[in-house]
C-alpha cells in the first residue's frame, strides 16, 4: 500500500466546536464549507476578517474572536483548521492540535495535520468528495466540475424521494415474517434506486408547483408501481 494513503470519512459536526485560525478568503471558504456540513459551533480567530466572515459573525452563524491565536484557543475543540497566511504559524497550530488529539488541517501543507479536505459536490443528501492525496489539486478541481455536470440538482430531489420511500417501508405495518419483510424492502429499495422514470415523475410534481413536498400518497403509488413487475 502506498505511503500516506487516506481513509475517507464523513463527519457529523453539529454540536462540535470547530476552530478556524485566520480571517482571509481561505478561512472564509472553510467556514462556508463547515456551515454547509451542518457545523453550528464555529469560531474564527483573527485580528482581521473578510467582509463575508464579518457578516457571518453578525448573523450569529460563526463567532469571531478578534485577536491573535493563542494555544488555549483550541482546547476542547473537535476540529481545527489553520488557515493563516503564515505557514510557520499554521504548522505550529497543527502540531499543538495533534498533541491534544484534535483533528487538524493546515491550508499551507496538506501533508501536515491529521486530515485533508476534499473537493466536494453537494446535491442535497448526495455528497461526493474528491481528493488526489495532494498529488494534483488541479485534477481534483477538474473532476469536481465534471461530476457537477453529471450529477445535477435533480439528484437532491431523487434522494428526498428515496429517503421518504425508505422511511415509509421501514415504518409500515407488516404481517409477514421479519426476514421476508426485510428481503422485500431491500428489493424495493434497490429497484427504486434504479427507477429513473419513477423519481423523475416525482421531481416533476415539485417542479410544476403542484406541491412543495412529496406526500405519502405519491410514495405509496410509487411502491405499487415498483411491486408490479415482481407480482
Folded structure, characterized:
- There is one protein chain.
- The chain is of the alpha/beta class and about 230 residues long.
- It has three domains: about 1-115, 3-Layer(aba) Sandwich (Rossmann fold); about 120-150; about 155-230, no CATH class.
- The protein contains eight helices and seven strands, in the order E-H-E-H-E-E-H-E-E-E-H-H-H-H-H.
- A five-stranded parallel β-sheet has the order 3-2-1-4-5.
- Helix 1 (about 25-35) links the parallel strand 1 (about 15-20) and strand 2.
- Helix 5 packs antiparallel against helix 6 and helix 5 crosses helix 8.
- The longest helix is centred in the last third of the chain and has 17 residues, at about 155-170.
- The model has no long low-confidence stretch (mean pLDDT about 90).
- InterPro entries: Met8-like (IPR028161), NAD(P)-bd_dom_sf (IPR036291), SirC_C (IPR042518), Sirohaem_synthase_central (IPR028281), Sirohaem_synthase_N (IPR006367).
- This is precorrin-2 dehydrogenase.
- It holds the Pfam family NAD_binding_7.
- Keywords: NAD, Oxidoreductase, Porphyrin biosynthesis.
- One of its GO terms (biological process) is siroheme biosynthetic process.
- The name of the CATH architecture of the largest domain is 3-Layer(aba) Sandwich
Looking at CATH, the homologous superfamily of the largest domain is: NAD(P)-binding Rossmann-like Domain
Give the total of beta strands. Answer: 7
Give, in spatial order, the strands making up the sheet with the most strands: 3-2-1-4-5
Kindly provide the radius of gyration, computed on alpha-carbon positions and rounded to a whole number of angstroms: 22 Å
Q: What value does the average pLDDT take? A: 88
Oligomer: single chain
Q: Tell me the major beta sheet.
A: 5 strands, parallel
Please give the share of residues in helix: 40-55%
